[in-house]
Amino acid sequence: MLGGIEAGGTKFVCIVGSGPDEVSAVERFPTEDPAVTIERAIDFFWRHGPLESLGVASFGPLELRPDSPRYGYITTTPKPGWSGTDLAGAFGRALGIPIGWDTDVNGAALAEWRWGAGRGARSLVYLTIGTGIGGGAVIDGRPLHGLVHPEMGHVSVPRQPDDPFPGSCPFHGDCWEGLASGPALADRFGRKGEELGELTAAAVDLEARYLAAGLRNVIYVLAPERIVIGGGIAELPDLLPALRRRIGAELAGYPDLAEQTEDQFITRPELGDRAGALGALLLAEAALHQR
Amino acid sequence: MLGGIEAGGTKFVCIVGSGPDEVSAVERFPTEDPAVTIERAIDFFWRHGPLESLGVASFGPLELRPDSPRYGYITTTPKPGWSGTDLAGAFGRALGIPIGWDTDVNGAALAEWRWGAGRGARSLVYLTIGTGIGGGAVIDGRPLHGLVHPEMGHVSVPRQPDDPFPGSCPFHGDCWEGLASGPALADRFGRKGEELGELTAAAVDLEARYLAAGLRNVIYVLAPERIVIGGGIAELPDLLPALRRRIGAELAGYPDLAEQTEDQFITRPELGDRAGALGALLLAEAALHQR
Lengths: 291, 291
What we know:
Two copies of one chain form a homodimer. Chain A has two domains: 2-103, Nucleotidyltransferase, domain 5, CATH 3.30.420; 117-267, ATPase, nucleotide binding domain (Nucleotidyltransferase, domain 5).
């Protein structure tokens, strides 16, 4: 039996099972301080175990290099109390089993590639547009990382001529996340959270232009076969159709690939809010084979 | 014995051997029309064969998907006469051996990863800055492609405030390649080819700013461990040090990784103008194992 955790900045999703149709237990609880939250997750797995291995798909930034002394740590997150938390290590010590470890978005990318909207794709990008913009990728069945994991939300995008908003990224100001995340929309249009559903057509169009501008950079660097977009902002009515229309203009016929303007190129997730935790099961499975 | 071709837009480099220190024959000749050029390469390999397999690292765009009826073709290149050329197929039919097939920059990336400036890196990006900007990548030992190969030269970069140049890309105008390729520099500063070595410090600084701006997008999407920059423009005196200084400003401390500001993060190739052809030998080797 495998365990999976999506360790998100606002909530933890803990799961026991082996796939979307074989889930024997699931629990969601808010992300509080590390000691309380980790203890609650460990308690869940004690009650529903024993497990062979556990996967953790976490908010970041993370140390993912196996040869680093800080492998398994959350590194420099702005989330109070969590910087320098040895998250993978805490679960490994408490449960005494192999731990798989990657970002929440790489976890969601893995799950959508294996069971969801990206089945059969050679390469898939998973983006979440919400309180930030996060991106993960699966290439030939493996989650993408190198020196560190991707931080796709921080690519640059050209400012739209009708947009005076300075951007909300504490590092870059008007990077992709700074211009197109949920808080950036709320700051501009005076709404937040669930109220974003009431945005005007002009606001949705501006968001679609920024999303297309950032996706262009992802597409030219990674050449993905499929792009899956989750997160609260992606649920705005009419946003995805508007984004698909804008992508053609961004690519401007180069390379001239029909696949990049088809509806299925940019699509919604199929696994909903369980994608991260289900992907963590795949990390658990991989950790078992690496023992 | 393995054969390799770097099929470039201006010249072909043909090589027989198994690595940088085991090259038994090499020949360079200009890229003329497809029939003449392909014939000349085939003649070289007849004279220096027999080969077990051949790798072709070609200018693009290319069809790389093995299940495509046009696998092995150069697709929609602006180079007169070459659009729709079945380059891999022509060599396969003439020589009757397995053919490896990828982009020239993925070939160079492979060679630098195996034998050159990227030895031991988990992920490496190879960029060439010359008549255009091309980018390839090797991740966990495999060249990167998905729906198509990367087209990194076409990411967007913010226009520098002191630069009125409209950009020279026929598709996007002021994309990275449109603002920072050799022709874009020559158009602005009235020099070309070898004379670019005489550029003023201000011109080199502008180029460094654009290169850093584009690299930032590559870094945030791919998170490479090493970046190798080849091509004529990269040889401009003082350019690489200026570029390294600018990268820190682009990343603005996120993520806060010392490795991304060290000199070895962005480096020159070690294999010179043989990188593409040597990488083609690795494509040949891989083709042998895929039979």
